[in-house]
Design brief:
By secondary structure, this protein is mostly helical. It has helices at about 10-30, 35-40, 45-50, 55-65, 75-90, 95-105, 110-140, 150-160, 170-180. It is about 70% helix and about 0% strand.
Length: about 180
Amino acid sequence: MGRTPLDAPERRQEVFAAVLALLAEVGYARFNMDLVAARARASKSSLYQRWPSKARLITDALRATPPVLAQPDEGSFAEDVRQILRAWGGPAPFDAAGVFLGLLEGGRQDAGLAGLREEHVDRVCAAHLQVAVDRAKARGELPAELNSRVLITALISTFVLMSEQRGVIDDLVDGLLRPLIG
């Protein structure tokens, strides 16, 4: 009995899950079709027939697997951020921080991946935090003139770079945000 063809949606999702897990685990430089073929139990030639490069495969995997994130409203900016970061670090279709780091590395070699990282982070992560920032400004928790882009970039970057550390979310919220916002 043969394998389900890669054209089948459920089989494609298996491949994409393997792609994102591998990107998070090994990074862009060590990511290759041999690893994907082994993880997804597919032939390398079948992969190359559909995706002529690792960048195309990663791009398609990310676009096919967007994270779905709730938008909490906990009544305070600090608690909104805490819940957003917990959602990012919680069970998801893929390791968001690891994938982000893989895209950051790959973006240095491939402008298309750099654009994908910007689109993915802007669309999913930054927009998610922007809602919380706008609400906090409306409540008077944050000054109206605060540069939202810088704050959001700092939160995302710190979370991604420190995501493996235990307690990083509480450290960010309680050790950084609360003292800043009073």
